[in-house]
Amino acid sequence: MSEQTSLYQLKNLGNTTINWLRAIGIRDIHQLSQVGAVNAYMRIKERGFNVSKVVLYALHGALNDEDWKNLSNSQKKELLQLAESAKTEATD
Question: Model-level pTM?
């Protein structure tokens, strides 16, 4: 994938998630990879959008070109722990 790959070309991302990403200033794969799945997820939540943990999994899968449903339980757990750590750091 090139740096300018459209968000629409990535796995797991539908119109709503792409609109949330655009709302936080992410417009392509390059920007998403710079921010990372966890930080993008946290920024979306901070904007007040009602997102589930599946969005975190979907963002991670999009960056790794894999369906989020194929993530192992340990990968999902690690992502949630990273998000929780980011949340804790933001409130300190």
Answer: 0.90
- Can you give the CATH number for the domain in which 38 is found? 1.10.150.20
pLDDT digits (tens, 9 = 90+) for 6-18: 899 999 999 999 9
What is the reported pLDDT for 14?
95
Strand, coil or helix: what is 60?
Answer: helix
Long-range contacts: 13-16, Cβ < 8 Å, 24+? 13/58, 13/59, 13/62
CA distance 30 to 1: 10
**Residues 18, 2: Cα–Cα separation, whole Å:** 18
DSSP alpha helix (H) spans, the chain:
15-23, 29-35, 37-46, 53-63, 73-91
Q: How many domains does the chain divide into?
A: 1
**Contact call for residues 29 and 3 (beta carbons, < 8 A):** yes
